[in-house]
Amino acid sequence: DRFTSIRGADDVPNPKPSADGLFVCCKDMDDSLNPSDCVYIGDSPSDAVAAQAAGMISIGVLWGSHSEDK
């Protein structure tokens, strides 16, 4: 009920760091949703790379799979 789109590596044409998954999520939410109007929150360096490739603002968190020094 809280998420319009949930996608994993098996659900998209190419996994991160490709931006494909982020583009699919935007399309799931609204065909006219521009990725540059989105913010991507992730816990790994590949999340930031994918967000940049999609033209999204990226926010990194430290409670996931990588620490601050990564």
Can you give keywords for this protein?
single chain; 70 residues; alpha+beta; 29% helix; globular
Radius of gyration: 12 Å
Strand order of the largest sheet: 1-2
Total count of helical runs of at least 4 residues: 2
Percent of residues in beta strands? 5-15%
Structural class: alpha+beta
- Output mean pLDDT: 92
Low-confidence stretches: none
The sequence of SSEs as H and E is HEHE
Shape: globular
Q: Into which percent range does the helicity of residues fall?
A: 25-40%
Number of strands: 2
Distance between the termini: 33 Å
The biggest beta sheet is recorded as: 2 strands, parallel
Structural description of this entry:
- The longest helix has 10 residues, at 20-29.
- The chain has a two-stranded parallel sheet with strand order 1-2.
- The chain is an alpha+beta fold and 70 residues long.
- It is built from 2 helices and 2 strands, in the order H-E-H-E.
Short recap of the structure:
The protein has helices spanning 20-29, 45-54; strands at residues 39-42, 57-60.
Topology:
Layout: H1 20-29, E1 39-42, H2 45-54, E2 57-60
Parallel strand pairs: 1-2
